[in-house]
Backbone:
């Protein structure tokens, strides 16, 4: 990790604080000890210059001693030793310099009188600077932990999306291929159309990278493609009614979020029913919510296989992962229709 | 040779019909779109051969087959059903995985023409057992009374009783018989709802009214419909474990 004070903006703050402290010390010398103002400034300047410099060096003692709690005794010893050594050396250098500049007997007495004060100050400066270093370390550590957590969350989301995407129903794919096999013999042109539709659908479903949001227009195009393929398989048994106003086309929603809902509608509508079935898809905007509803007729007498609700659960979890709060999906059922309603918050564009 | 095609997708039926064109010996008498109509058609036409899809509306191909006492030869076709495929492989019945090649189809037909396909009659029990043991827990049972097919959601069933080769299924509406073994039935029922309380009895815990001491050391169960059933020693400990009393 970099030295926290060796960056232009923090270094000038550091120097400024030392300048203020030195100023305070100088005025104390001037008023309290009746030194001349030149003498006071020289003394305070040299003393604080030395300790300011030492303060920068203290970083290495903080940085390179262990932060392991079981090592606290060693850390304490190292700080006591560093404080004693640096304060002793600092004061010796100071005395040597000041004697070189101001050599007189009266000053010698003054130096002796203030020695304990200077030692106390040196230790205090050591303690304060080291404390500041520890706070910085702790703060940086916490920040990097939060950052890592955010990254992890994003990774998890990505992985989960991959998983949900890979759940394209193999039944659907193989049955579609079987329809194509049949069409190639009976009506090659229709087979051609179907192959192209299936390819577009698969490309959209499998090829999407981590791009998480998509416009309703694009999602809708893909859903309609899916329904077209199912229409080829089931012919007149499947009718689709969509009601999506132009104003909703550019609203955003999570990639492939409608697919499992439409698969459910097909599964409970068409797969478990021999009568014609109408699937309805509608969208509207309510303030900053995009509301989508998908409904299918079902046979109330059919004891359909329970799908275990995996599709609905996945959609609910994805919305929860993306938008927090979990009540974005509502299910209702009357005698003929099963309806799923989705609320997709529209985040303001950044 | 009379044949029936049972598949809910038109194009899939078309393909079978087309592949069959060159086999003049085989006449498709009717095509059906689900298990109910398939069952009726088999009773009516007594075909020699059926082409049977598995995933269909109302009841699956397997469920339909369970209801037929003297099943004809069957060529199964399915797109993707891992349990079924395992069951097929173990029991050597002929099956086609959609989409299948014409040559593979012809092979299956030739087996049928030479009667080399294992007759389902001999193997039905084994196949159905293999399927129930591979499949996840049951959520419904399909039974018939005469020509009427009933689909019973599993939670509507109060209790089962062994009766020779059959199992009697009791619901609030009535009693149904099904060719089934208690052991495989017990294995495929949801463990948290059903307990085998006796060699010949499995009950739905929701149907229990109370457990009473019958004679010294032996218990009997009173159901909500007022019926009494015996509880064996091991049945008693299973009940105890499940209901935590």
Residues:
């Amino acid at each position: 990790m970099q030295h926290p004070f060796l960056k232009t903006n923090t270094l000038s703050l550091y120097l400024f604080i030392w300048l203020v402290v030195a100023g305070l010390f100088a005025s104390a010398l001037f008023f309290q000890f009746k030194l001349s103002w030149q003498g006071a400034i020289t003394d305070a300047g040299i003393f604080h210059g030395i300790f300011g410099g030492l303060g920068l060096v203290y970083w290495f003692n903080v940085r390179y001693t262990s932060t392991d709690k079981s090592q606290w005794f060693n850390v304490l010893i190292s700080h006591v030793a560093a404080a004693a050594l640096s304060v002793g050396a600092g004061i010796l250098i100071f005395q040597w310099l000041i004697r070189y500049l101001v050599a007189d007997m009266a000053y010698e007495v003054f130096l002796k009188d203030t020695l304990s004060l200077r030692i106390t100050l040196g230790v205090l400066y050591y303690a304060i600077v080291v404390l500041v270093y520890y706070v910085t370390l702790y703060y940086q550590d916490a920040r990097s932990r939060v950052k890592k957590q955010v990254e992890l969350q994003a990774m998890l989301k990505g992985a989960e999306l991959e998983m949900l995407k890979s759940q394209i129903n193999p039944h659907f794919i193989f049955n579609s291929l079987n329809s194509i096999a049949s069409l190639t013999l009976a009506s090659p042109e229709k087979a051609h159309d179907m192959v192209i539709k299936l390819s577009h659908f698969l490309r959209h479903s499998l090829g999407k990278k981590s791009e998480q949001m998509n416009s309703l227009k694009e999602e809708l195009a893909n859903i309609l493609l899916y329904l077209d393929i199912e229409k080829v398989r089931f012919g007149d048994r499947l009718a689709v009614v969509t009601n999506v106003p132009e104003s909703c086309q550019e609203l955003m929603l999570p990639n492939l979020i409608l697919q499992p809902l439409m698969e459910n509608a097909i599964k409970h509508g068409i797969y478990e029913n021999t009568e014609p079935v109408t699937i309805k898809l509608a969208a509207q905007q309510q303030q900053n919510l995009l509301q989508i509803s998908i409904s299918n007729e079902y046979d109330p007498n059919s004891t359909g296989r329970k799908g275990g609700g995996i599709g609905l659960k996945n959609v609910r979890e994805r919305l929860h992962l993306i938008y927090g709060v979990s009540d974005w999906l509502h299910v209702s059922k009357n005698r003929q229709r099963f309806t799923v309603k989705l609320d997709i918050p529209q985040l303001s564009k950044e | 040779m009379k044949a029936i095609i049972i598949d809910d997708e038109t194009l899939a039926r078309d393909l079978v019909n087309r592949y069959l064109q060159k086999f003049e010996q085989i006449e498709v008498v009717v095509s059906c779109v689900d298990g109910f109509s398939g069952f009726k058609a088999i009773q009516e036409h007594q075909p020699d051969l059926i082409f049977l899809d598995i995933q269909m509306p109302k009841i699956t191909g397997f469920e339909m087959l369970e209801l037929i006492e003297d099943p004809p030869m069957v060529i199964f076709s399915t797109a993707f059903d891992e349990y079924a495929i395992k069951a097929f492989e173990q029991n050597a019945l002929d099956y086609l995985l959609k989409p299948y090649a014409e040559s593979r189809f012809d092979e299956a037909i030739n087996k049928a023409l030479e009667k080399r396909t294992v007759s389902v009659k001999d193997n039905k029990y084994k196949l159905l057992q293999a399927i129930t043991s591979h499949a996840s827990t049951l959520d419904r049972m399909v039974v018939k009374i005469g020509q009427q097919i009933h689909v019973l959601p599993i939670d509507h069933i109060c209790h089962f009783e062994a009766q020779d080769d059959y199992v009697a299924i009791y619901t609030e509406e009535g009693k149904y018989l099904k060719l089934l073994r208690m052991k495989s039935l017990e294995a495929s029922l949801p463990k948290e709802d059903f307990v085998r309380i006796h060699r010949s009895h499995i009950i739905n815990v929701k149907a229990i009214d109370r457990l009473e001491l019958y004679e010294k050391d032996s218990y009997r169960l009173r159901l909500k419909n007022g019926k009494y059933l015996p509880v064996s020693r091991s049945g008693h400990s299973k009940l105890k474990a499940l209901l935590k009393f």
